[in-house]
Amino acid sequence: MTGFSALVCAVIDCRSGGVCEVCGAHRAVERHHRRPRGAGGSRREDTNSAANALHLCTYCHHLIEHNRALAYLVGWLLPQTQSPERERVLRRGDFVLLADDGSVQPHEGWAAA
Ligand SMILES: [Zn+2]
């Protein structure tokens, strides 16, 4: 099972600025897969993409793992059927779309998830 490449890690770190992408308050120390690697997910191209990643503090990573229904609702976790670049995610209080090039775009509309 492989994780994020060094290049993708650099893109993620640049995007976060080293600050947690969920709370925006604490230092980011863990890289989280929005769509988990399990169940064959690791074979898919976009599993280890920047759009599938969130750079998190330990508190928010814990929050996600222990509040999975909430995490799915706001895009911190994604079902295996979804593509990370197309699914909004709640990032520091705003819904955004993450791109594999490290860019972040505002996401308009609540019904588009
Ligand atoms: Zn956090």
Kindly describe this structure:
- The protein is α+β, with helices and mostly antiparallel strands and 113 residues long.
- It has one domain (6-106).
- The protein is 23% helix and 17% strand.
- It has 3 helices and 5 strands.
- The chain has a 3-stranded antiparallel beta sheet, with no helix packed on it. Strands 1-2 form a two-stranded antiparallel sheet.
- A hairpin with a 5-residue loop joins strand 4 (94-98) and strand 5.
- The model has no long low-confidence stretch (mean pLDDT 92).
- The chain binds zinc ion (ZN).
- Zinc ion is lined by residues 20, 22-23, 26, 56-57, 59-60.
- It comes from Mycolicibacterium sphagni.
- This is HNH endonuclease.
Mean pLDDT: 92
Please give the oligomerization state of what you see: single chain
List how many beta strands DSSP finds: 5
* Helix vs. strand class: alpha+beta
Could you give the order of the helices and strands? Answer: HEEHHEEE
Unreliable parts: none
Helix content: 10-25%
How would a crystallographer describe the biggest sheet? Answer: 3 strands, antiparallel
In what order do the strands lie side by side in the largest sheet? Answer: 3-4-5
Distance between the termini: 29 Å
Domain count: 1
Backbone CA Rg? 13 Å
How much beta, percentage-wise? 15-25%
Number of helices: 3
List the ions, cofactors and other small molecules found in this model: zinc ion
Global outline: globular
